[in-house]
Amino acid sequence: MKHKRKLVFICNGSDCKKSGAKKLYKELKGATDEPSLRGSCKFIKTKCMDMCKTAPNIIVGDHFCKKTSVEKVLTEIKKS
Ligand code: FES
Predict the structure, then answer these.
(1) Which protein residue has the closest C-alpha to ligand 1 atom 1?
(2) Which end of the chain has fewer surrounding CB within 10 Å, N or C?
(3) What is the distance in A from the centroid of ligand 1 to the CA of 44?
(4) pTM metric for this prediction
(5) Structural domains for the chain
(6) Which residues lie below 8 Å from residue 21, measured CB to CB, with a gap of 6+?
(7) Which atom of ligand 1 is nearest to the CA of 49?
(8) Helix or strand run (H / E) with residue 31
């Protein structure tokens, strides 16, 4: 059985934080609180993923989002 809820891993290392990971997290939290997306994902903060050159890094399900933005992550979350 496949889980409907996607896991979203947000890097919380220093380079990603400098590149706006915190702001990205807050914006994503707000965006996924909309009725259409509520309960569709679970956010997990991680330590450095060792990919600092492409900060901010976020993993959505099995997709690695480099130098990512809210729009890119939301697109990945909406994909079934
Ligand atoms: S700080 Fe995010 S990958 Fe290193």
Answers:
(1) 13
(2) N
(3) 14
(4) 0.90
(5) 6-78 (3.40.30.10)
(6) 10, 11, 12, 55, 56, 58
(7) 3
(8) helix 21-31
Index of the ligand 1 atom closest to the CA of residue 48: 4
Nearest to 20 by CA among 80, 70, 64: 70
Give 20's contacts (C-beta < 8 A, 6+ positions apart).
Answer: 56
pLDDT of residue 2: 60
Nearest by Cα to 12 from 21, 24, 20, 3: 21
pLDDT tens digits in sequence order for the chain, 80 residues long: 566 789 999 999 999 999 999 999 999 999 999 998 888 899 999 999 999 999 999 999 999 999 999 999 999 998 86
Residue 70, C-beta contacts closer than 8 angstroms, at least 6 positions apart: 24, 27, 28, 31
